[in-house]
Amino acid sequence: MGNIVAISGASGRTGFRIAEEALARGGAVRLLVRPTSKLPPSLAHCDVRRLDFGRLPQLVEALAGCHSLVMATGARPSANLLGPFQVDAQGVQRQVQACQQAGVGRVVLVSSLCSGRFRHNLNLFGLILVCKRWGEEALEQSGLAWTVVRPGGLKEGEADLEQQELVVSGANTQQQGVIPRRLVARYCLECLDNPGAIRQVLEITSKPRPAA
């Protein structure tokens, strides 16, 4: 088995950052994206597999030879209220099955703070937090070496990354907070290399470092 890290949803706003950070570490990276997805120029020369995430055989083939997978797929707000169920529940379940069949042993799933909570405004979009929890449960019951990363509200800005410190805790301990997507990307890759993160649900936000 090689040391290839697969990243699904690599065209997304968190996914492409995970891919960039993995490349910066010098590792072998494979990007799993939908046929119509557009990748930034920074990922133009990557090993890219375009596939239908609804087809298990395509996923198994795309993951062949990979050591690990970071799942950064996620439903986007739209008029399709079935999107969260299709992407965050069924889609994750299918990727878990593909990992089992392809021999991918290490998996990190990017989920969301408050995953599983029913009474939350985000659930107005197709019960997205409920669907995310269903996806988490599929991974937790898979027998794989898994980690669930639940970031808070995701920020695009990257100007003050070095002035941020991470707030990391266990499941269902943080209710609010934000974090730059770039820091989420770095943390997911750190989890891949950390045996202590296996079989853990980790909630992550960030806050400004106190003045010296």
Summarize the structure.
This protein has helices at 15-24, 56-63, 83-102, 128-140, 181-192; strands at residues 4-8, 29-33, 47-50, 66-71, 106-110, 145-151, 153-155, 164-169, 178-180, 200-208. By secondary structure, the protein is an alpha/beta fold.
CATH topology value: Rossmann fold
What gyration radius follows from the Cα positions, in whole Å?
16 Å
Q: What is the total tally of β strands?
A: 10
Q: Helix/strand/pairing class, anyone? A: alpha/beta
What does this structure look like?
Residues 9-195 form the NAD(P)-binding domain. It holds the Pfam family NAD_binding_10. It comes from Synechococcus sp. SB0676_bin_10. InterPro entries: NAD(P)-bd_dom, NAD(P)-bd_dom_sf. This is SDR family oxidoreductase. This protein is α/β, with parallel strands linked by helices. The protein has a single domain (3-206), classed as NAD(P)-binding Rossmann-like Domain (Rossmann fold, 3-Layer(aba) Sandwich). The protein has five helices and ten strands. It has helices spanning 15-24, 56-63, 83-102, 128-140, 181-192; strands at residues 4-8, 29-33, 47-50, 66-71, 106-110, 145-151, 153-155, 164-169, 178-180, 200-208. The strands form two sheets. Strands 3-2-1-4-5-6-10-8 form an eight-stranded mixed beta sheet, with helices on both faces. Helix 1 crosses helix 5 (181-192) and helix 3 packs parallel to helix 4 (128-140). The longest helix has 20 residues, at 83-102.
